[in-house]
Amino acid sequence: MTPTPQLLESKNVFARQEGMLNYAEDSKGALLFPELSTVRGELERNMLAPERRSEYRSSAKTKIHDGITWLLSTPGASGNYYHWTLDLMPKLLYLLEEEISPCSQIILNAFSNRFQIDMFRKVLAEAIDRIIVARDAKSGYYKEVKIPFIAQARGKWPRGIDLLRNHYLPTDIHQESSKMIYVSRSDATRRRVVNEKDILNILKRNNIEIVTLESVDVTMQAIMFNSASLVIAPHGAALTNIIYCKPGTTVIELFSHHIKPYYYHLAHQMKLKYMPLTCPYGERPLEKHAIQSSDLYVELDSLEQAIERARYQ
């Protein structure tokens, strides 16, 4: 059975927000929703100390926000397509479809990217006057707070993915999954393929289309991935779009030695054929923490072999 979000609820709440929910507490100063707090480590010891929280309360606006306030601010969602699409938007779509009342207000992460504006334009015309960007909400008192919370160990909330597909894939799409695409990160500042010019001949020889997604709206991205039989891409948020692929589509993900399993789990959940291809660093980073951002060098023979295997899977 597909789970529904657990609703975390409380009344007369003080919440501190700087870009997202830092913490919330009740009228007696007890911390609420610790599983959603974005404060960690040394910051936690300082920010959550009772005397500091007392200072925040006394300096905040005393006006109580009436009605129900839905706190949807999500770590990482302000500028990241993956977290915005898979962690924040499903909760919002669910609320608009199932839960939310006309007088409710919704607090979200700050947003300004094209993909965020595209997604809002399609679903929030009727609710835009009730949206409060967390960047502007700051700290304050709320008469009643509700937070939809979904705990997923691997993959993402199935009902949420269905909502995304229903909203961003046109209902009249009947294309065969015949297109093969390579998603370039040439317009990015990290995790680029440094020898991309060298692999273009291989891609063209195999009738694989080279695409960049920076200027493509969300619906067109959804259609593009839905019509693909093969997707090749360096690790990055563009692979979020495999949620729109048809079952059986092959996904070849290019990694440096920094490997994250996000899209492996997502591909498994969507019944896709997943093939990781580990590549050497394009330039070894000087800082250990920068390994995840390093460019990569694709070995031509390995790519040829992966494409050949994908044809016969």
What are the salient characteristics of this protein?
single chain; 12 strands; five-stranded parallel β-sheet; alpha/beta
Strand and helix layout:
Layout: E1 6-17, E2 21-25, E3 31-32, H1 41-47, H2 50-59, E4 64-71, H3 81-99, E5 105-108, H4 114-123, E6 131-133, H5 134-137, E7 140-149, H6 158-168, E8 179-183, H7 196-205, E9 209-211, H8 218-226, E10 228-234, E11 250-255, H9 262-269, E12 273-278, H10 300-311
Helix content: 25-40%
Task: Give the low-confidence spans.
Answer: none
What fraction of the residues are assigned to beta strands by DSSP?
15-25%
H and E order: EEEHHEHEHEHEHEHEHEEHEH
If you compute it from the alpha carbons, what radius of gyration comes out, rounded to the nearest whole angstrom? 22 Å
Would you give an account of this structure?
There is one protein chain. With 313 residues, the chain is an alpha/beta fold. The protein has 10 helices and 12 strands. The protein has helices at residues 41-47, 50-59, 81-99, 114-123, 134-137, 158-168, 196-205, 218-226, 262-269, 300-311, and strands at residues 6-17, 21-25, 31-32, 64-71, 105-108, 131-133, 140-149, 179-183, 209-211, 228-234, 250-255, 273-278. Strands 3-2-1-7-4-5-6 form a 7-stranded mixed β-sheet. Strand 5, helix 4 and strand 6 (131-133) form a beta-alpha-beta unit. Helix 3 packs parallel to helix 4 and helix 3 crosses helix 6. The two termini are 30 Å apart. The mean pLDDT is 79.
In short:
The protein has 10 helices and 12 strands. It has a 7-stranded mixed sheet. It has a 5-stranded parallel sheet with strand order 9-8-10-11-12, with helices on both faces.
